[in-house]
Design brief:
OB fold (Dihydrolipoamide Acetyltransferase, E2P); 5 helices; 5 strands; rod-shaped
């Protein structure tokens, strides 16, 4: 009986505010950030609830219905996400590949074969001065004392692997 009374109290203004609020939130979903459209949409929905209810009980029922609808909308959205049916505007289609000029790390491959001095103990990570560049380096697992002469044997992204030069290698 109370649900029928609640439905009979819904005015055209409530329906307009509800649809406007949902529409503004959808607009906000298609534009990045949480801006004016999202805030205005939430305000429209809150005003819609206050315009519609005539008692606290009706407000609780309407708020419950509102939250159930939100849960249903989110479930539908996440089901679409899991099946790969997401609106194209929500997915970044451009890649940031090296061919297009994007790089996540600086190319340090020019250091291969260069020598330098360890400025902190490597166990296995430490610091080294290689041709005037102070760099974070790692050894292949061995302990390298501070002040030892090292050679860069591998560069992978920002990971620079060094090995200690032996006495025979230092003289050559």
């Amino acid at each position: 009986m109370e649900f029928i009374q609640l439905v009979s109290n819904i005015s055209v203004l409530s329906i307009v505010l509800f649809l406007l609020g949902i529409g503004l939130i959808i607009v906000e979903l298609h534009s990045p950030g949480f801006g004016a459209a999202g805030i205005a949409g939430l305000l429209c929905l809150i005003i819609c609830i206050f315009v519609t209810v005539q008692s606290v009980t009706q407000g609780i029922i309407l708020t419950g219905i509102f939250f159930v609808l939100l849960v249903i909308i989110f479930v539908i959205f996440f089901v679409l996400l899991s099946k790969g049916r997401v609106p194209k505007k929500l997915i970044l289609e451009e890649s940031t590949s090296a061919e297009l000029g994007f790089s996540g790390t600086e190319d340090m491959s020019f250091l291969l074969g260069k020598t330098g001095t360890v400025t902190s103990i490597c166990r296995p990570a430490g610091n080294a001065d290689i041709e005037g560049l102070k760099l974070d380096v790692v050894s292949r697992g061995e302990f390298i004392e501070k002040g030892a002469i090292v050679e860069v044997v591998e560069v992978e992204g920002s990971r620079i692997v060094v090995k200690e030069k032996t006495e025979n290698e230092k003289e050559i």
